[in-house]
Design a protein that fits this description.
By secondary structure, this protein is mostly beta strands. The chain is built from 1 helix and 11 strands, in the order E-E-E-H-E-E-E-E-E-E-E-E. The model has no long low-confidence stretch (mean pLDDT 92).
Length: 126
């Protein structure tokens, strides 16, 4: 079964805070910013589909996703949104083409503190 859930900035008042050094807007000088951590317990299960929407002020601040135990930085585009979902593809350059699905599982998310956001996500349950 697939479950859909939502977390907003209002849900993170008691979440732990970590400091991260980032390049604001992906460029320029380094700044140290507080980030709120959305833990695996808050997500219930690893998530396979996610949509993040931030206020205009949040466009310059990346989010951090933990994928396969490795934390990776993702820049938010000029729209203030970031999303991922499973993608099915075929290698058209191969004679033995068969459909494959690219899917990631995120276990933890760090979002900039003080930024208004909405995070919608999907996860599997038995």
């Amino acid at each position: 079964m697939i479950n859909i859930a939502q977390i907003t900035n209002f849900d993170l008042t008691s979440a732990s805070t970590v400091q991260k050094v980032i390049h604001k807007g992906g460029e320029g000088t380094e700044v140290t910013i507080d980030y709120k951590v959305i833990t695996p317990e808050m997500l219930n299960q690893p998530i396979f589909k996610m949509g993040y929407c931030a206020e205009v002020r949040g466009i310059d601040y990346p989010i951090f996703l933990t994928i396969n135990g490795v934390e990776k930085e993702f820049q938010i585009g000029k729209t203030g949104m970031y999303e991922f979902q499973p993608e099915t593809y075929i290698d058209i350059n191969s004679e033995d083409s068969e459909e494959k699905t690219a899917e990631v599982e995120v276990t933890e998310i760090a979002v900039p503190a003080g930024i208004v956001f909405t995070l919608d996500y999907c996860y599997y349950t038995a």
